[in-house]
Design goal:
The protein has 21 helices and 10 strands. By secondary structure, the chain is of the alpha+beta class. The radius of gyration is 27 Å and the shape is globular. The protein starts with 8 loop residues before the first helix and ends with a helix. 42% of the residues are buried. The structure holds iron/sulfur cluster.
């Protein structure tokens, strides 16, 4: 059989040019989507005037139409186009205020004198049972009646609904935020007090804040007694059953020994919170241990830290403590080139090398590097995910401390766009590597019937579309719940990512790369960059249309 002719240098150049052009376009689509997310007007009014009118008419019977909104306030007009009232949503200010699992949007209806006539429920991403409880509670909805608009920005002590405290409090905070109250999305607003650290530092007379958020120094007559780390100020949010806990860790002056921990508050459920608070108070299992020991030991196995029946809440506390210590240690390691970052860059660099060179296809290299990736995932916890990308798009990001993650993301997005090689999925991703290793150790490997396989491979694309659509709709849904990656860094704390991780890994023993093929939206995004590298596909057209839709959402 004659050997196929090698492509001429001219053809080769043409193909390369096509690949680069398409790669640039596809990468541009992703960057444009991120830019659109960033540019989304935060104070836009998405309410339909017809809905506003319908929901306001019971309180303002004379209203026959809703006019154009100014500053988010819809004028309610009578038959002579005279203003007989006003209505406004608590969004977008309330969108960041989470109840048990999401934010809620209310409609505030005012009379012509700008005093509250009624407050109505519009929508909620919170848990159904809690929302229903609040919706059925009349005193909750009537607490604002007759109040002037100017009074609403003072949060005070709102009436909350027993059994749905977080949902109702989040709604009330949303009302206050809509009318100017600051910090309503901060659930633990109180500053650290001497009383909070009296057990560990009985003689303390002063607490000072360091330059790094969440790290405090405790003093007695200008002598440093120790350091206190506070989870809510360090942005650490290990969740229990339904909410985060505000935990402190007290360290010796040299920062090497844990003097004890404290429990300032929690948004988790009773009675678990009380159980853990008592346990922390009377049997602080961390006290006296070195920081290195706490970080090294398997705290799940420590009976002194676990209260029967409250393991999620307790685990949240334990994980918060460990994460605080990890971050503090990273800070302490100074501004040089910390070992963690060095390891991360080495891991990424080797991954890129074996991903673009033929040597990476050798079974021993492939499996050896897969084991390294799994170890990197477990120790570093850095992965490219939709939660991370959408978060960067919405909120931007700081460079400090995330350079390895930036390098990882750049390697995942840029290399495939220009080489056609998906180095992240094929080599680097720890979750993909874990599936590769699981597949190798399984006795028997199955393949789905072609039709079922074809149908299921659509799931990652649909999930990807759903995530980005929800992001553009500012849904407030935690996108980490769509993927398993959070579990690699935070452990089995949040149920949904942990369940996706477990099911995906178990399936990988029988179905090769099961989660990659049938579940992963990040994998779909990276496939978009590499599939048909020299030919325009239907996906490119759909992507262009979606960017137009995103742009119109930004501009209109
Ligand atoms: S498809 Fe998802 S899980 Fe699989 S390797 Fe790619 S990013 Fe990782």
């Amino acid at each position: 059989m004659p050997r196929p002719e090698a492509p001429s240098p001219k053809t080769d150049r043409k193909r390369r040019l096509k690949r680069w052009t398409l790669g640039s376009y596809r990468l541009g689509v992703i960057l444009a989507a991120l830019a659109c997310l960033r540019a989304l007007p935060r104070d836009e009014v998405s309410l339909d005037p017809a809905v506003v009118l319908e929901m306001s008419r019971e309180a303002i019977p004379g209203a026959v139409s809703a006019g154009d909104p100014a500053d988010g306030l819809f004028p309610l007009l009578d038959g002579d186009s005279q203003t007989v009232g006003w209505a406004t949503s608590t969004y977008p200010q309330a969108a960041k205020i989470q109840g048990y699992s999401g934010s809620s949007e209310l409609l505030m209806v005012f009379g012509a004198d700008r005093k509250v006539k009624a407050v109505r429920f519009l929508a909620s991403a919170d848990t159904d049972g809690h929302v229903k409880k609040v919706r059925d509670d009349e005193p909750f909805w009537r607490q604002w009646d007759g109040k002037a608009e100017a009074e609403l920005g003072a949060p005070g002590s709102p009436i909350v609904v027993s059994g749905a405290t977080l949902t109702s409090e989040a709604m009330a905070r949303g009302v206050a935020a809509r009318f100017g109250a600051e910090g309503m999305d901060e659930w633990f607003p109180d500053a650290l007090k001497l009383a909070d650290v009296a057990k560990q530092f009985p003689g303390a007379d002063r607490i000072s804040e360091s330059d790094v958020s969440g790290i405090h120094q405790v003093w007695e007559k200008e002598e440093l007694l120790g350091t206190v780390l506070r989870s809510s100020r360090m942005g650490i949010s290990a969740r229990g059953y339904n909410g985060t806990s505000d935990v402190i860790v007290c360290l010796s002056p040299d920062g090497e020994k844990v003097l004890g921990i404290g429990f300032l508050g929690s948004r988790d459920n009773e009675p678990y919170v009380s159980d853990v608070r008592d346990e922390v108070k009377f049997a602080d299992g961390f006290a006296g241990k070195s920081v290195a020991t706490v970080l090294a030991e398997d705290t799940r196995a420590s009976p002194s830290l676990f209260t029967s029946g409250a393991s999620y809440t307790n685990h949240a506390v334990v994980e918060s403590v460990r994460e605080m210590l990890r971050r503090h240690l990273a800070e302490e390691e100074g501004t040089g080139f910390p070992w963690k970052a060095s390891l991360a860059f080495a891991w990424i660099g080797i991954g890129v090398f074996v991903g673009v060179n033929k040597v990476g296809n050798k079974s021993a290299v492939r499996l050896g590097y897969a084991a390294i990736s799994v170890a990197a995932g477990l120790t570093l916890g850095w992965m490219v995910s939709q939660d991370q990308l959408v978060g960067w798009g919405m909120n931007g990001f700081g460079w400090r401390g995330i350079l390895p993650l930036l390098a990882l993301t750049a390697a995942a997005l840029v290399i495939p766009a220009f080489t056609g090689k998906n180095v992240y999925c094929n080599r680097i991703c720890p979750h993909g590597a874990a599936q590769t290793l699981a597949g190798r150790s399984g006795e028997k490997r199955f393949h789905l019937p072609p039709k079922l396989h074809a149908a299921l491979t659509r799931l990652p694309w649909l999930t990807l579309l759903a995530i980005w659509a929800l992001a553009f709709l500012a849904s407030g849904i935690p996108f980490a719940y769509f993927e398993p990656f959070e579990t690699w860094s935070s452990g089995f704390v949040a149920f949904i990512p942990a369940a996706i991780l477990t099911v995906g890994l178990v399936a990988a023993f029988f179905l090769p790369q099961a989660y990659c093929h049938y579940g992963c939206p990040t994998g779909a995004l990276l496939k978009f960059l590499t599939a048909s590298p020299t030919a325009w596909t239907r996906r490119d057209t759909i992507a262009a249309l979606l960017i137009v839709a995103a742009l119109s959402r930004v501009l209109l």
